[in-house]
Amino acid sequence: MKEKCYGIISRTNYIFRIPYSLLRSFMADDKKDIPVNIVQPGPLPPEPAETAPLAPQQTPDMLIELDDVTWERTVEKGSRPVAVMFYSPSCAFCHQMEPYFRKYAQEYKEDVVFARLNIMTNLWTAERYGVRSTPTFKFFCDGKPIREMVGAVYPALLKKIIDEVIIHGKECAKNSTAINYDITGYG
Prior knowledge:
The protein is α/β, with parallel strands linked by helices. It has five helices and eight strands. The strands form two sheets. The chain has a five-stranded mixed beta sheet with strand order 4-6-5-7-8. It has a three-stranded antiparallel beta sheet with strand order 2-1-3. The N and C termini lie far apart (about 75 Å). The model is unreliable at about 5-15 and about 50-60 (pLDDT under 50).
């Protein structure tokens, strides 16, 4: 027969399952170290369900999560200018810049498409555009990259660049040279 277990919540909010006999001896040894809350016997609370990864979709604040598959349709063949934030989930500066990027996505939702791309899961696109560090902000007009900023930049500078892309983006894209991405090592 299994011995009854009691759950104890420690001061660090971890739940432990301790056999009653061990708990009794613990309480007898040193009464001043008795845990704050003792939970009634029973099963442990259910573990939180894992959430499915987000599909490429547009969030209510107008920020699109891209991947290698949706890149061409959204950025290269889009009719509006696109601002892309290349980020990494472990990048502290990305987390620092994201609230500003989301704020500008809401503010400029009529003029510019705002998107972000995780370089850890979408290596092909990041490599194709030469993204070597995060955050990297790239601005596209008519599918062509026209501006780039790397690192945690001042939010005011980011906003100024967005304004410039809206004003001069199409003109800049028309005057730029197309890049041939069909490069092979065989000449």
